[in-house]
Design a protein that fits this description.
Blueprint lengths: L1 H34 E4 L2 E4 L2 E5 L14 E5 L4 H9 L5 E10 L2 E17 L2 E7 L10 E2 L3 E10 L3 H11 L2 H71 L1
Helix pairs in contact: 1-4
Length: 240
């Protein structure tokens, strides 16, 4: 009896753990699917933008496969002021490259080497710390973000693959459909078990009730017979 109680308690704990694991998985998937945006090699989650470095052009600052963080809210005038004050300014901008298979669009992050102003419009001349100067200047209004100076070594491709997988049909199947199906099966089994216990208790209760009713009827019958017997005895005494 004691072993049965322990087993039930263990199964209940396991069931609760499975429930919370399924819930956590669904929440994580929903968060990534709803609040993340993937644009080429740039990923944004809750407004925080990060890029996967595609080459080693910025060594030693960061290397290919690293994950770098960029600030997307900035003022071009502030970038110009920082550059004129001798601060290192690293900007992210969109690059369009024509190949035999079509046009490739990606984001590049390079150091600003010079800034020119033409008719009130700023042009930024960039170069990788480990590469030749870029062929075309970047218009101030085309700057996507500014590197914050933070990077995670080797995390870029991992993040890209993870988010890409979570947003795929396979990821949806593994992290939404199967966990929900498993949870549904668990709840059905749990409901069936509870219902069976309820039916058993109800059956036992009905049987006890029938027994009590039978005892009550037998008692009433016995009392009735005893009353009739006593009445008969009184009549016989009266005759004598």
């Amino acid at each position: 009896m004691e072993n049965t109680a322990k087993r039930k308690k263990t199964l209940k704990i396991i069931g609760n753990i499975v429930f919370w694991l399924v819930l956590i998985i669904v929440v994580i998937y929903s968060t990534v699917a709803l609040f993340s945006k993937k644009d080429n090699n740039m990923t944004s989650v809750f407004g925080i933008s990060a890029l996967t470095v595609q080459s080693d052009s910025m060594l030693p600052a960061f290397d290919e496969g690293d994950l770098i963080f960029v600030k997307t809210k900035f003022e071009v005038a502030d970038l110009v002021e920082k550059f004129e004050n001798g601060e290192k300014v690293v900007i992210t901008f969109r690059v369009m490259k024509t190949t035999e298979t079509g046009t490739i669009v990606y984001y590049n992050t390079h150091t600003v080497k010079n800034i020119s102003e033409v008719g009130g419009i700023y042009w930024f001349y960039t170069q990788g710390d480990n590469a030749p100067a870029d062929s075309s200047p970047v218009l101030g209004s085309e700057i996507v973000g500014v590197w914050t100076g933070k990077s995670w070594t080797g995390w870029g491709y991992f993040l890209d693959n993870t988010i890409g997988f979570l947003k795929s049909s396979t990821g949806f199947l593994l992290f939404i459909v199967l966990p929900c199906l498993a949870f549904l099966i668990y709840e059905i089994v749990r409901f069936t078990k509870i219902y069976s216990q309820y039916q058993l208790q109800k059956h036992q209760g009905d049987r006890i009730k029938l027994q009590e009713e039978a005892v009550a009827i037998a008692k009433m019958q016995l009392e009735k017979e005893m009353a009739e017997k006593a009445k008969q005895e009184n009549k016989e005494k009266g005759k004598n």
